[in-house]
Amino acid sequence: KEIEGAVELSLGSPFKEVSDAENEADFAISILVPLLRKMGFSNVRYSHGRKEYGKDIIFSRRTEFDEYEYWGVQAKFGDVSGEVNSEIDTLVGQAEDAFKMPFYDVYSRSRQSISKLLIAISGKFTENAVEKICEKIESYPLKNNIVFVDGEKIRTLAERFRR
């Protein structure tokens, strides 16, 4: 499915609308992967599975200092709420794993760690979800390297990069 998306992207076909995603995998593969590629990030790959350690997608970019900066994406389908018994604790655990657990970069053939984590959801962050996630992550440097993107922001970015 990812190869399909890459072919569609190279031919200039638009990627799916957020509202057309059927599940988390579809959201990640049909929307996030092509969008990240269109935004100019490199080495974008879907890595969901047993050894993902909180990183459904991994990608990189060249910094202003000509070094690679690695990012991870934790993709969620639907809304994320700050209510009791919500998936906040799962997200916090996945975020901490994403930063702590290195991954094998097939391009550089070495173990790498991410510098930033994008928590991308197809719906919206309800109530105080973002605040709760940030408060539950104890490490100050980790908090400052998490970017939250909801379905509305993804739609806006997709519209801008669809052209």
UniProtKB/TrEMBL annotation:
GO terms for molecular function: DNA binding; endonuclease activity. InterPro entries: Restrct_endonuc_IV_Mrr (IPR007560). One of its GO terms (biological process) is DNA restriction-modification system. It comes from marine sediment metagenome. This is Restriction endonuclease type IV Mrr domain-containing protein. Residues 31-157 form the Restriction endonuclease type IV Mrr domain. It holds the Pfam family Mrr_cat.
